Structure formats: C-alpha cells, structure tokens
Amino acid sequence: MKIRSAAITTALLTALTLGAATAPPAQAASLPRCTQPARLDVFREGGLPLLDWRENLEFDGRGTLWVAHLTKNRVEGYAPDGTMKASFPVSGPGALRRGPDGMMYVNYGVNPLTPGAGIVRFDPAAAHPKAEKVVAGISGINGLAIDAEGNFYLSRELATGILKIRPDGTKDEAWTKAADVFGANGLEIVGDQLYASVITDTTSPIVRIPLKDPAARTTVTKLSHNILDTKVLDDLTHFDGDLVVASFRKGQLLRVDPATGATCVLAEGLRMPSSVRVARAFGDNDPRRDLFVVEASGRIVKVTVG
After folding, report:
1. Strand order of the sheet with strand 252-256?
2. What is the pLDDT of residues 172-230, one digit of tens each?
C-alpha cells in the first residue's frame, strides 16, 4: 500500500528550513476577501484516515469529477449527484490534470521511495477509460501542471528542481536546473506563470516561476510565522483571481493574492486536505463560488464560498 510522501515529509519539517526564493518577502499580510466562513458539505464519505487517502482531483469539463484514490490504486469518476460512474486501476495515482488536448493526465507511482513512476493519460469521454503510459522511468514525483503547448511540469518533494518534460517525453534539463526549488508540492499555471507550494520549508512559501525564464523565480508569500505555525502546504488552484492552497496540517484552505501576497483563511475544519480544484462544468455548481477538496481522510468535500 502506497502512502504519499507528505506523511514522510511532515516528519522532516523540523530539520528542513531551506529558503524558496532569491529575495525573501515580508510575511503574508491580511487579505480582506474571506469575509464569511465557507460552507463545507461532504460529497463523498471517507474511511480510515491515511488508509483511505484520496490524493488529487480534476474536472474534465464534460460533467465528471476525476479523483486519484491513492491507497486504492485507482482513478474514480463521479457524476454531479455523487454517483461513481467509472473506476480503473492506476498504481499510486497522484496529481490529475486536464491537458490542452482534452485528455486527462495522471502521475503514477507518487511515493518518492518507489522507482519507476511516470505519467499516464486516459480519455474521459470513453465508455470504459483505460490508463495509457505517456512518460515512464522517473521517480519521486508528486504535483503536475500542463501548459498550453502540452509541456509537463512535475514537482518533487524531496529533490531540487521542478521537472519539465516536453510533449515528446524528453526532459528539458536546462529548464529544470533553473527552476531550482527544493520540496515543491502543488503546481498551478496561471497565464505565463507557474505557481508552486513548498512543503519542506517551515515558512510555508508559495513561489512564482516564469515559464519562459525559470531562473527569475520569486516568492509570492510565506504563510507561516514560525515553526509551530508550519502549514504543510499541499496542492493549489486558481480561483477568482487569487490562489487557493490546501494546508494539510491545519485543515484549512488559504486564499492568496498573487500580486501582493496578502492572505486569509478561506475555509477550515477540513481533515488533512491534499488537493483543491474549482468546480467547472459540473452540474449546477458555480465556478465563482464552489470548490472541491479531497483529503487523506478519504473524503471528498464541496466548499461553497460566500
């Protein structure tokens, strides 16, 4: 049974205090956009915490929510009413993302101690989706982002450098070397910028990496004021002009203005949230208000803002 590396990294947090930017910014200021507590509704119940770990999720834009069920070694597809409409095997599935070609891409083998990880894809419109290998022979990966040209970006929690892989499967070694972030976790592309949360830095930073000039990375904010306040940042998404990042340790969603670094607590009371995504083309859910979260508790939770 594979347990994702956040469980390993959490134990290392007191020893790992590496900086994540070339120029350290001030601590996060308050963002006055979280005026009302968000409502939490359980979309799918979980099981035993950590043993029923749902790791990541993504909407395909065709009415299905796809979820990486890490400890069950499968990818699940859900209808807006909560019905599971598809399920197929993927070994140690991690981040899920929709590609510019409309296909769904999934990291597999995300346990960093297990060699032979990579990326698979599947057709979300297929009657019986099946995983097809796209990239193989890499290890220690976690987060995933895909740009408009089909390039893959993979975070590595226990390594330096965000890995860039071209659509033909070759590695862009120069780009990876320049994007020298240690311990990146969640990844999200907004325009021509790649945002990454960092799990192994006790200051809980979010960094911004220009896709065309990765060496020019900067830190958007540092979300922890001291080691006791370490957030253990996981996945993040773009929501209504801001970033929303999951704090695995605090059970929160944190909203961050990418321009100023100002932040506020958007939602709390979650149980080890590992990924958050905006609901898109998913029944009557409103992408301006509704997000979905998966947890290491196994739950899928709908978060309604405002």
Report:
1. 233-239, 242-247, 252-256, 263-268
2. 999 999 999 999 999 999 999 999 999 999 999 999 999 999 999 999 999 998 888 99
The answer to whether residue 37 is domain-embedded is yes
Q: What is the rounded CA–CA span in Å between residue 53 and residue 72?
A: 8
Residue 206 lies in a domain: yes
CA distances from 70 to 13, 45, 176, 255, 284 (A): 23, 15, 26, 26, 28
CB 233 within 8 A of CB 206: yes
* Full domain range(s) for residue 190: 6-304
Q: How many domains does the chain have?
A: 1
CA pair distance 275, 32, nearest whole angstrom = 23
Nearest to 155 by CA among 164, 256, 53: 164
Note the pTM of the prediction, 2 decimals.
Answer: 0.91
Residue 1 in domain: no
Q: How far apart are CA 52 and CA 66, in angstroms?
A: 16
Cβ–Cβ < 8 Å for 70, 108: no
- Cβ of 136: how many Cβ atoms within 10 Å? 13
* Inside any domain, residue 262: yes
Structure confidence by residue, pLDDT tens digits, 69-94:
999 999 999 999 999 999 999 999 99
Per the rule left: phi > 0, alpha: psi between -120 and 50, beta: everything else, 9 is alpha
Indicate which CATH number applies to the domain containing 275.
2.120.10.30
Q: Cβ neighbours of residue 127 under 8 Å, at least 6 residues apart?
A: none
